[in-house]
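DM from R.C. (forwarded with permission)

"hey, sorry to bug you on a friday — could you get me a structure for this? deadline for the figure draft is monday and I only need the backbone to look sensible"
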Amino acid sequence: MTEFTFKLRRDTSWRWNIQNPVLSDGEPGFETDTGRFKIGDGSKRWVDLDYFVPVDPLDIEEPPPSDLLEHVNSLLPHPVYDEGVSFTLLYQNAKV
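My reply, with the result:
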């Protein structure tokens, strides 16, 4: 079995700011003294890049589709659809 080691480009925050390199598109740069990192876009210098902030997908609130809201709030009988299985179709069938 072959082992591979993956290392990020790394340096101290002070040295990153002094050198101010342009990271390639998708290239991560790690600050060894702060534990933070940035991801390059191929054009911005280090000081112009934002620090990477992970996003918890459970914190993203997307509004439900308007047709689903209309359906939920409707007092009329709900039609049957022949477009195949979907969340909307399953919900409508469960409600009928």
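R.C.: lifesaver. The chain is about 25% helix and 10% strand.
me: no worries. Helices lie at 13-19, 66-73, 87-95.
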